[in-house]
Design a protein that fits this description.
By secondary structure, this protein is an alpha+beta fold. It is 34% helix and 25% strand. The radius of gyration is 15 Å and the shape is elongated.
Length: 99
């Protein structure tokens, strides 16, 4: 996961949808956590439905107080009970997540 950004996941989802779109009459997407912003940033058309379960776009947009940058590992550390390592690209990608 350290080499994969939200944008890369969104691009991958776009490729998968394009591959299967002609094979199915309906395509339903379900996104949990980071799956929410991934779906919203993907370039997809003709999707039947989207269900987002606890999407984390608000978390990404609003994290500031629990976020520190560690130069030794070139990653952000999000401390929320459990420490999460986030690549700088993930933090930068939150700029694309608008209301």
């Amino acid at each position: 996961m350290k080499d994969c950004t939200i944008d890369i996941n969104a691009e991958d989802l776009s490729v998968v949808i394009a591959h299967f779109q002609d094979q199915y009459d309906q395509i339903h997407l379900v996104g949990h956590s980071l799956g929410g912003p991934i779906i919203l940033l993907a370039q997809i058309d003709n999707i039947t439905s989207v269900a987002l379960r606890d999407p984390s776009f608000n978390v990404l947009k609003n994290i500031t107080e629990d976020l520190t940058f560690d130069e030794r590992i070139d990653m952000y550390i999000l401390g929320r009970g459990t420490n999460f390592l986030l690549m700088p690209e993930v933090i930068k990608s939150r700029e694309k997540l608008t209301d």
